[in-house]
Every structure is written in structure tokens, then in C-alpha cells.
Amino acid sequence: MKYSSIAEAYEKIEATTKRLEMTDYLVEILKETPTSLIDKVVYLTQGKLYPDFVGIEIGIAEKLAVRAVARSAGHREKDIEEDMQKTGDLGETTQKFMKKKTQATFFSVPLTVERVYETLDKMANSTGSGSVDLKLSLLAGLLSDASPSEAKYIVRTVTGSLRLGIADMTVLDALAVAFGGGKETREQLERAYNISSDLGRVAKLVAEEGIERIKQFKVLPGEPIRPMLAERLSSSAEILEKLGGKCRAEYKYDGERIQAHKKKDEVILFSRRLENITDQYPDGVEYIRKHVKAEEAIVEAEAVAVDPETGEMKPFQELMHRRRKYGIKEAMEEHPITLFMFDVLYVDGKDLTLQPYPVRHRYLEKIIEQTDNVKVAESTIAENPEQLEQFFETTVESGSEGIICKSVNEDSVYQAGARGWLWIKYKRDYRSEMTDTLDLVVVGAFHGRGKRAGTYGAFLLAAYDPDKDVFETVTKVGTGFTDADLEKLPKMLNKHKISHKHPRVDSTLDVDVWFEPAVVIETRGAEITLSPIHTCAMNVIRKESGLAMRFPRFTGKYRVDKSAEDATTTQELVEMYRSQLKKIDG
Ligand code: AMP
To answer: 342 alpha carbon to ligand 1 midpoint, in Å?
Structure first.
């Protein structure tokens, strides 16, 4: 197939702004393409050589392209650069200079799509020393045999500026008309694309084997599935109404979404944008290999950064340390992750994407072997708004930004690539800074792990209610302590150690060690939230809810000047919560 046919189609597509016309031109060119080349032509029209998840880009620096143009057009680089300043587009400039040249030389062999594709592929795959020279000579060679218009598009393709505006959906429309038998087949083609993320493969399959084959299309480990996304609502009642009165509410973890593909011993991890991120998470790979009990599987999880010492979840930003090419092993040790599994799309030959969520969830529970670092997302079945609200508060209080409510109806399939009402997120719709510090009493402690083994990992803190003369819990803190603090604290606390909860401490939480209320420390948090777990001001703001401080941190100050009864009071916390709300409303 001549590359000129493609270049001509590009010219026409560029000249129109109407999507329908664009689709017609695409249909024309697809029909003209030999079926064996369909995938390549589809990738090329989108300025690519492979589907995105393969991660191979042509990516030639503009400077290098200028040199190749100069060489094949027989001009100085400076002239090309100067003209490019005027046109603002190296493609345009190339065409101009190649026109000047063609007046002087004869045409050589016409370029074929095969040759263009293979040459670009060689360029994309050449790395290491000598690769710059190789790329330069390959590109210059191609341009020397190209017509001015072809040269324009080749240069735009290699520098990543083709931008014909052909969206995935336009290609699918064109495929439906060209090979599917009509527009109405677009839906089946779209599904095949959504579960393979590979337009070229779908195009070739429908061109070679027809739409019936597309209807049989199944997910395959190794090919990423475009992720299902959630809609959003802001009240429990609305959510339940939308989901038919019942749902599975899940903790919304704040980390990085990972789609893990297991093929026997091989594991591939894809990001939400379907980039291959396997190398970033050697620990994640190991967890999947060991704790997904299936020969082959595709599962989805949120990777969350955890504190290596306390095992507590850390905010999303901490995962940034894992985005690197070098020093991965060190980053892995300093910033470990836990995988929270929330869906399964394929198990040992079975495509589960069209199964309702309850079925998928049963599979998930069956194949995931839970450990410290591999867990099934925490969830509950909610059948009334009160239940849902309670779960929401529990999760927010323990650091989540909210929950995801999932349909459990017959039609609750995995909607690959779509944002729909089968998943609804319910986030905290307010956010405010807590400026005051709180002086809280240490009433209990949890043993540490990792580097904190042998000392305490976290502490249970309480505020004082002078009316009832009890200490009510507000938060669990594990952050902000230096090594010196961790050495000092047991000494300060151990003389107050008791074998059971102190009678003046009101707590629903259990700890490893209880203390009599004596030691007061200063803490700072992100905000005060409602909580069904902490007992501070229970039932004051809302029935069966107390108040808690989120993201607490020790400031470094021991309030030895304060007795336990001088700690921040529960009434003060109620005031702070109310003023926080006023700020948001205002
Ligand atoms: P958002 O990015 O705010 O639209 O929320 C959706 C994202 O939440 C997903 O893409 C996941 O990365 C993440 N997430 C966390 N926990 C869950 C869960 N249990 N189920 C689904 N997605 C989750």
C-alpha cells in the first residue's frame, strides 16, 4: 500500500472540522487498506506505532528531525530553523523545503506504508550509543524518498505532532461502517476495545473475521482493560435510591489504582492510565504472584503507602517516592505498600466482566489470600441510609476521603472504560484546616512493628469531659515521633501502666497497653470529623457518633505543665467542630 494514499487521506481529514466527514474519510482509507495492514494504519492515524500500553513511542527530538530534514532537502539546519520560527510547525516547513528540492530532482521509488511503519519502528526501538546517528540516517533516508506532503506527515508523526484529531470513538465509528455492517455495530466494537485497549487489534479482527468474531471477544491476561469509573452523589439516601435500595459500600483508599495481570509466574501491573508500571512495584508483583490463588487472573487494587513502622496508611502523596526509574529497591523499603483488592475481571479462562458484582466479589474473596500487605477492600452491605452513613463516618474517621458504593443488582457488570451509576462515590464534601493544636491525654498504646518493634507504634489519645469526669477518645496517633521521643515515651508512660482500661476512660477501641490518664501531649490534625468509633462528645452532634481528629501528628511538645484534667475538653472539640462547619457554609 502506498503511503501517499494515507497522506492524501490526512490532507482531507485536516481540512475538515466535521466529525462525520472525518469518519467518512477514515472509512475510505480503511476500506482501501489490505487487511494485514489495518492495525498499523489505525495506529499511524493516531500518531502511534502500538497501543499505548506497550509503551513504545517514536519520540524524536525536534532538533534531530531538523537535522534529518536539512540533510535530505540539501539545506542548512539554520535555514530550516528560521523558517520554522515563522510557520511554527516543522511539518509545514519540511513540506516547503522538500518542494524546492523536488523541482531539482527526480522521484525515486514510491514509499509504502510497510516501509514507513518498519522504519519508524526501528527508530522507536533503537536505544543506547549510536542510536542518535541511526535514527538520523533512518529518518533522512525516508524523507529523501518522500513527496513533500508525505514528508510533512512523516515529520509530524516522528515528533509527536500529527494531531489529526481522530479520537478513539471516531475510529470505532469508522470500523463499524467499514467492516461491521453498519453504525449499529459500533457498540460491540467499543466493548472489544474497552476490554483490550487495543484499537489496532480490534480493527484487524473485524476486518479479517467480521463482527460475529467481535461479539465473541473476551478479555485476555496481558491486555489491559479500560477502567470502570464512578459517578458521584452527596447523600446516603440519594445513593441508595439510585442503586435500588441496597449496595456494597467500600472503603475508598487513597493510593494508586493498579490493574494486575497474572499469567502463571508472570505478573504485569498497569496504572489507571494503562501504562505498564510493573517495574515500579516489585513488592506488588510478588504479592500478586504469591497471594492471588489462580493460575491466571486479572484483579484491580488500590496500592496504598503504609508507614513501615506502624503499618498505618499514609496519604497518596507518599506514593510519589515510588515513581522512579532508579533506586527502586531503596524506595520499596522506605515506602512499602499494601494492596487493597476491589475487583476481579478474569480467573482461569473465565471472563468475569459481564458477571454481576456479587459474583465477582465472591471470586475475589475466594482467590485472594489475605496477609498484612494484601487485603480485600473493607466493605459492608448497606440497606438503609443510616447504615451507609455509619460506614461512611467510620471510613472518614480512619483516614479515607470517603466510600464507593457499588450496585449489587443483576446488571452490575464491570463497565469497562465508562463512568456510570453502578459505582457511586460519596466523598466528604467539605474540607477545612484545623489551626488549633489539641492537648490530649495518652490513655493507651499499640505495640510497634518494623523499626518500632520493642517500643510503641501508636497511642490512643483522649479529651477530658469535666461534666462527666471521664476521658473520651479522639484519635490514634503514630506520626511525628522522633527516635528520641520513642525512647522517652515508654519511660514516661510505663509508671502509669495498668492491666485494664481505666474506669474513667471511655473507649470502644481495644489497645495493647492501657495507662491511667496522666501524660498529656500536644497534637495537630487536619480537621475534626464525626466518628462512630471515638467516644468524644458521643451523641452530642449526631446520634451514635462521636468526634475524631483526622491525620493527627505529635508536635514534639510534652505538656508536662498540664495534668490530665487540664487537657482539651470535649466541649472545646464540639465548638471547634461547629465553627469548622460554619466556615464551610460561609
Ligand atoms: P476518583 O479518582 O475520585 O474518581 O475515585 C475513583 C478511584 O478511587 C478509583 O479509580 C480507584 O483508584 C480508587 N479506589 C479506592 N478504593 C476503591 C474501591 N474500593 N473501589 C473502587 N475504586 C477505589
So the answer is: 9
